[in-house]
Amino acid sequence: MATRQPTIPPSKVLHIRNGSPEPNEVDLTVILPFLSNFGTVIYVVTMPKLQQALVEMDTLESAQKAVSYATSSQIEVQGQLYFLHFSKSQSINREPSYRRTLVEHHGEKILLATVHNPLYPITMDIVTAILKPFNVLRIVIFHTHGIQFLAEFATPEEARTAKDALDGREIYSNCCLLKVVYSTQSTTLNVRYNTDMTYDFTRPDLPSKSA
Q1: Are 38 and 69 in contact (CB under 8 A)?
Q2: Pairing relationship of beta strands 147-153 and 41-47 according to DSSP bridges
Q3: Which of 121, 110, 99 is nearest to 182 (CA)?
Q4: Is 91 helix (H, G, I), strand (E, B) or coil?
Q5: Are 149 and 142 in contact (CB under 8 A)?
Q6: From the CB of residue 9, how many other CB atoms can be counted at a distance below 10 Å?
Q7: Model pTM score
């Protein structure tokens, strides 16, 4: 006799995974606008390695509308297939109130930044606008553990100034919180192309290539 799987109770939190055969992460730039048809997204956590994401809606009704649609219709946005259902969690654990800690600076010129609750796209243009006042030389954006970027500065002093100014700040109100640490990477960032994921401001002559 087959064992009946327990039913997951309705939740404001939605579990989303990539349903396409290609190993792509959940593209927030397409899935968040899609979910806005059912209500307001208030928090998101990405899991790039698992090609999944957790999204918390503003109300249970909004989440139920999204799941109801996913149950009756296939979700395909811009050619990408997604599966959506209720999460086992009733809410997404928020980061505790972020308190910056004093970290000794050993002359590092490269910062590692992680963006928490990225409700809006974090593009090269956005990162550049944030870092340009601090004389950033090179930027590398990657999605290994959520949305992160490395930023290399001309001097250790400029790196320290940037960290002090940006650590614990939000790019947009109530979302996109920056957590900035000194990177353990001591060598110059390897940028071969100026693209939407990597950029070397000392080499504007580098070729542009799709990331």
Answers
A1: yes
A2: unpaired
A3: 110
A4: coil
A5: yes
A6: 8
A7: 0.77
